[in-house]
Every structure is written in structure tokens, then in C-alpha cells.
Design a protein that fits this description.
170 residues; alpha/beta; 5-stranded mixed β-sheet; two-stranded antiparallel sheet
Length: 170
């Protein structure tokens, strides 16, 4: 007698397991994002550590990627290159948190070769945006409304898709 499961039941089991895994992923993700700002972002006009004028919302009329990172953050090392690439096509408001002095942030950006400037936050913006972990990313439309939030590693295609969708829906 053959005790091997029928191919149909094996496929069904794999589908159920995949749906459970996806559900768990989104549930955990939603839990980590529960305190993140999800309505109107504050108006920001500041100088970055390299002297660049940074603002939110952007004067370009394009959606802005707001990127909270820390120089010591391992996950940020995976996300920062994507943010740097995106900065050539969309406004990026990078905010360094818990990363030391302005000189420390400048040295970090230079060492990594990042072209984006950053505000060195001493806790005000981090608190206002509800950031509880790094990296934390927000896509803010031209009117200053938060359209997407993400905490943790994110890829360039995923970030570009969110920015593109926001641009389409403005």
C-alpha cells in the first residue's frame, strides 16, 4: 500500500502553510509599525549636517522618502544604499538618530559614500514620527500626508514602488 500523500493534498498543504506565513509576516509587521506616524507629517525646514537645505514636504511636488537611520544600525547598512540610489530620482529627507555629533554623522556619510545629506536628530523628530526602531521609512506625498510606513530592511524596488504609487495617486 502506498502511504505517500496525493499531489493535490500536498499542494493544498503548501498553499495553506504559505498563507499562514504571509499572515504572520504582515501581522508582525503591523505590530512593529503600530506607533509610527500615519497621518500628516510635520512641516520641516532644516539644514543637513553638510549644509544642504532639507524640507518636508518637498518643493518639487514629488513624494518624499523620509528615512530614519542610525550609524550603528546593522539593518540600515542594507537599506541605506537603496535610499542613496533613490535620492537621485526622488527627494529624500534622511534623519540620523542616536548617531553622535554632526561631525560623527558627516564622517559616517562620507565613509559610506552616501550622496544624501541628513538632519542629526536629537530625539524631537524621532519622537514625533513614532520611531521605535531602525530603519524606519515614510513615504510622504506633496501635501505632507504620510502614505506608506515601513520599519526594518526594505529594498530599492519596494521603496520605488511605494514612491511611484504615491506619485500616481497625488
Amino acid at each position: 500500500m502506498n502511504d505517500a500523500p496525493a499531489p493535490r493534498s500536498k499542494t493544498k498543504r503548501l498553499l495553506v502553510e504559505a498563507l499562514i506565513a504571509i499572515g504572520l509576516f504582515y501581522g508582525i509587521s503591523a505590530y512593529f509599525q503600530k506607533d509610527m506616524l500615519k497621518d500628516t507629517a510635520p512641516v520641516i525646514a532644516a539644514k543637513g549636517v553638510n549644509g544642504t537645505s532639507l524640507s518636508l514636504p518637498s518643493a518639487t511636488g514629488k513624494p518624499t522618502l523620509v528615512y530614519f537611520f542610525a550609524s550603528w544600525c546593522g539593518a540600515c547598512k542594507l537599506t541605506s544604499p537603496a535610499v542613496d540610489n533613490i535620492a537621485g530620482d526622488y527627494p529624500v529627507l534622511a534623519i540620523a538618530a542616536d548617531s553622535g555629533s554632526d561631525t560623527d554623522v558627516i564622517a559616517f556619510l562620507k565613509e559610506k559614500g552616501y550622496g544624501f545629506d541628513a538632519i542629526n536628530d536629537k530625539g524631537t523628530l524621532t519622537t514625533h514620527f513614532g520611531v521605535s526602531g531602525f530603519p524606519s521609512l515614510y513615504v510622504v506625498d506633496a501635501r505632507g500626508e504620510v502614505r506608506f510606513v515601513t520599519r526594518g530592511v526594505s529594498t530599492e524596488p519596494a521603496l520605488r514602488a511605494r514612491l511611484f504609487l504615491t506619485e500616481l495617486l497625488q
